[in-house]
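Notes from the 1:1 (GR / supervisor)

We went over the backlog. Supervisor wanted to see one worked example end to end before approving the batch request, so GR pasted a single chain during the call. The sequence is below; no edits were made to it. Supervisor asked that the structure be written out right there so they could see what the output format looks like.
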Amino acid sequence: MTDVSHDGAASRPHAPGQARRRRGTSPRENANIGAAPRFARFGACCRWALAVLACLWMALCTAVGPLYWREGSIADWGRENTVYAVLSFAVYLGIVVALVRLGSGAWSWRRALARARERWRPHLAQTAAWRGARRALDLTRRVSAVVGRILRRGTDRWWKLLLIFIIGWLWIPTTLVTAFGADIRSQIREFSWAWNQWTGIQQPYIGFFSFVPMDIYPTAHYLWPEDPTYLTDQHNIVLTVCYGAVASVSRYLTGSNDAGYMTLSALQYLFAAFCCAATADRFLNLGFMRRYTGEAAGRRGPARGEWLLPQSPRRRSRPLPTITDQEPIAPAGGLARFLILLFFMTCPLAVFATISLTKSPLFAFAFVWWFGVWYELHATRGRLQRDGLPVRLSRRSLAAFVAASCVMLVSAKYAWYILAAQIVLALVADRRRWRTYATALLLPTVIIHGGVSLLIGTGAIIAGDPIESRGIQLQQIARVAKLNPDGIPESAREKLEPIFNLDQTAEAYDQDDADPVKSSGIQSKKVSYKWRTVTAEDMEQFNAAWLEIVVANPVIALDAFLAKCYGYFDVTAPPYTSMDYYVDSTYVQDQTTWIKDWCHEWRDDVAQFARDWGAVPVLGWFTHGNLYVSLTLLVGAAEVVLRRWRTLMWHMPLLLLMGVMVTAPANNFERHMLPVAFVFGFLCLTFIRDRAATAARGPGVKVEA
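Structure output shown during the call:
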């Protein structure tokens, strides 16, 4: 048998398994041609291996959940856990496979439905039920088309979306007023004591059993400057000053902090509405496209129909033609708009976060804003304007990028790690717009993070204790001290003696929360962590002692690790602390002046409704952050398999945030999952659009967005 070469000419037969030699090529080139498929198969195997590892990790977290619910050990693994692991792995891997088939265009529910309809139509066409179903389907289509048009018209501008968010959330600040826990009270206390110090009212550090603000969330005394201040970077110094100043003005004008709480919650509610509206406009309406198409009068940019050209070296040297085709990305349909708005309007994660005065919700809404600008950069990457230059962010979008980065930096200390990683990735994937990334990412990081470091270096504020980031190690040491104290090597015990009281550490151990181990809080305070007397030299021995304990007790150490973080990836695990905690906490309901008397019972009812909804099997999963974290990880695994590297580049912060969750002090703490949950709907919309872009390139094109 002969075969046809690329140019249609007949070629000679070749032996089975032997690579065909192309005409006009050298033996070395033919060897490379034969190696290419093998390399592609190896790459596919590696990508699928990563996806399988993600599914295995999630299956493990799901399977060990029942063990740790009853405070057991992985050594108690039984048949029930094996069944959980196998079933959950099959489900997770099945989702990844379905996403890959959907994303590559190999499967479409519309085509599947059409094939089924064509198959069964001859058998059912004559039945009355079929005719009734057809009429009902036609009616449903007409109604959905009308509703879709209404949704699109009602949400086709960012200011319309802003009104929807403001009005839809208006009941929250007016009836619930505010929501907070212990953190903001500590921040207000810090600022008040510092203000008294600045104004000449000395509050000396007296008595071993007296607690200053830096001792409540303990900051080791070796970190204090020679002339101690009352301000720390424990909860981010910028937020501490802002919250404390507003509360001080409130006390001056009204005699209590309540007006300050109300003001701060109202401002955060407006900020949340703005961030969500701006990002929804970018994803749903592609609002930034109007600036490039010149659709809106008075805006600079190419005329209508002169949009963006795919970047190509061959096109750079010749005149750029006018594009008259349809825009490459279509605005979202009515269903996507409805689902995204439904989540923000009804999910307790978003509803309660609007007024919760902790650092995580503020970071989460700023992250939503930041994520939207990244989508604008992603959608315009690799395209040229008519002048041949790469598309640059407009001044408005660049200002939004800078502002969002700044809010993230001042609200969460780990934000600078995320921004630093994104700077590197962005310069690798989109180096032609390096000025944008230097301005919006590098400059705020240097100014804000560098400024705080300078304040710490000069003694103006006290640094946060680095033990905060060692939650996993603390839990492993504490669990061993509790369950197998004789298993602690003597050398490790000697190294830890200046740092911890191991008896108190064992007593304070809670498998879900590392805060008691590091002596956080003031109620029933146990001095597990010797923050008053520990020195920097003592802390240098910490890692060595921890490693000795882990090596001597590997099973207990593994239990401590899994028990502290499995809940973030187990959709069946109830939250350790949900967002409704802040709504009816004792700090709000009992320790405020007048807020506790305003809608007191309503606040309890709203929080209880959220808890009851979250306790419903399956339906309650939609109210918990770990569902969105798990699904985001699966979508990321599918993107790896599909080789959507540039999409993964700006989705990488979601993976970094999962790392933050694992190292956080508490397990399944919902406020740490807010950023991932808030952008999950936009992530799905991007995945679908990338599928459409893959299909538009036609068959035979590699799957890469």
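Supervisor's comment: Residues 465-569 form one domain.
Batch request approved.
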